[in-house]
Amino acid sequence: MRRGTADPSLGSETQRKRDFTTVTALTLSTAGAATLRADAVVVGIAKGTGPKGGLVVAPGAEAVDKAFGGKLAGVLETLGASGAEGEATKVPSPSGLKAPVVLAVGLGTAPAKDEAFATEVLRSAAGSAARALTGTKKAAFALPVEAAEDVAAIAEGALLGAYAFTAYQDGGKGAKAPLAEIALIGAKPRDKAHKAAAERAIALAAELNRARDLVNTPPNDLYPESFAAVATAAGKEHGVKVQVLDEKALTKGGYGGILGVGVGSANGPRLVRIGYTHPQAAKTLAFVGKGITYDSGGISLKPAGHNETMKCDMAGAAAVFAAVVTAARLGLKVNVTGWLALAENMPSGTATRPGDVLRMYSGKTVEVLNTDAEGRLVLADALAKASEEKPDAIVDVATLTGAMMMALGSRTFGVMANDDAFRTAVHETAEEAGEQSWPMPLPADLRKGMDSPTADIANMGERMGGGLVAGLFLKEFVGEGITWAHLDIAGPAYNEGAPFGYTPKGGTGSAVRTLVRLAERTADGELG
């Protein structure tokens, strides 16, 4: 019996809860901040830049400030508010406001007179406000709105901030549900650009939050077969074609990398292809995700203290899955294919050993020197398979190396590529989407460290620059002439610290927004 289905108490009920996480409702309201009936009204405050400094009330909150007799900033200063980004301060509302509570969220330093607040500042502030309003039914957001980009940022931040993973909690006394409804004031419901921005935010947040759910799901409930089932169900729901290769098909097809990683587990591996097509598409993108549903390290067992969060090692596959479904929901004029390389890396009598040689799907042989360098093995097979379809570009996403965390910290992912212009484009796209990234090189001299006396290549090389070595390994399996980029999201995929902005503790949905924005730019003819 498969370990993932052995306990009926963790079966269909938690599956239903995970697949149908409640999504916060969002509306564009024509009502004023003072007259809208809500449980709280959110306003922005910033640090003044004049000679006297002090707090200033951000645009959008004029009616609320008027209800305070023009003294809202002074009241907040008295309470210790500084206007720092993400800072949230609650005050009781005076007469004249329908909402009983005012939540002032910091926006940092006020921009120059003729400039607007950066979209990422608004996105983060909206997320902080939504988190601060956990347990609240309805909130009116009266943050600065000057363009559709502001509507998108506020809506996205609020919806991502109003997230909680509660599938395994009994909802007992004292438990608070996320903010249930958001009314965005200042946006125009009849404006096509504003409406489209809100609809995009709703679709993106729903799928990104589903990716977070998958990352947060414990590995006894999320294993390759059950992940594939989630993808299959989503495909039926959104008209996306899903194909699943099980152990028998993987063996017949010669997928030695995926099989080599999954052979030690009672839960067999899977390769899932999820494809969205548009009849007017001129370009095709392939996204490849590392989906190690649990990583013990295999025979090269991880030391104590390094196993507890390894359910997150499938975050790359979750991001790819979410991005393809989002592209389908948005009806983007681009073909997008996602490849989910799913396996569970476990030690057992059947597990791959250090020193074993695997014959990969591409035909190359790999000497496995460390079974904990398994992500590159499953990705290698998926990259080779994806290359056969000759896409215009391939982007893989993976929680691949601790070395990348050492280099870039816990909030920034690395970008490597076989084309400098594409690497720059991916980096710029990530920054535009609000995700921190940094372009990294693929030094040719590091390739020699992976030379093997036994096989075509080893799965390990020099210790220093390990994240770059992993990128060089993957490059070997990309089809000739295909533009490719590699995103190492090991740092930002799982937040072990306190929540911040719109980022919760646990699974973050890292890279989803970058992939979706890449698809949009490709559909618009900006890339390729």
UniProtKB/TrEMBL annotation:
InterPro entries, A to Z: Leucine_aapep/pepB, Macro_dom-like, Peptidase_M17_C, Peptidase_M17_leu_NH2_pept, Peptidase_M17_N
Residue span, Cytosol aminopeptidase domain: 370-377
Query: What is the free-text note on the cofactor?
Result: Binds 2 manganese ions per subunit.
Q: Which reaction does it catalyse?
A: Release of an N-terminal amino acid, Xaa-|-Yaa-, in which Xaa is preferably Leu, but may be other amino acids including Pro although not Arg or Lys, and Yaa may be Pro. Amino acid amides and methyl esters are also readily hydrolyzed, but rates on arylamides are exceedingly low; Release of an N-terminal amino acid, preferentially leucine, but not glutamic or aspartic acids
Picking any one GO molecular function of the record gives:
aminopeptidase activity
| Main location (coarse class) | cytoplasm
Catalytic site: 302, 376
Cofactor names: Mn(2+)
Task: Give the family this protein belongs to, as stated in its UniProt record.
Answer: Belongs to the peptidase M17 family.
Instruction: Provide the function of this protein.
Output: Presumably involved in the processing and regular turnover of intracellular proteins. Catalyzes the removal of unsubstituted N-terminal amino acids from various peptides.
Q: What is this protein called?
A: Probable cytosol aminopeptidase
Q: Which organism is it from?
A: Streptomyces crystallinus
Q: Which gene encodes it?
A: pepA
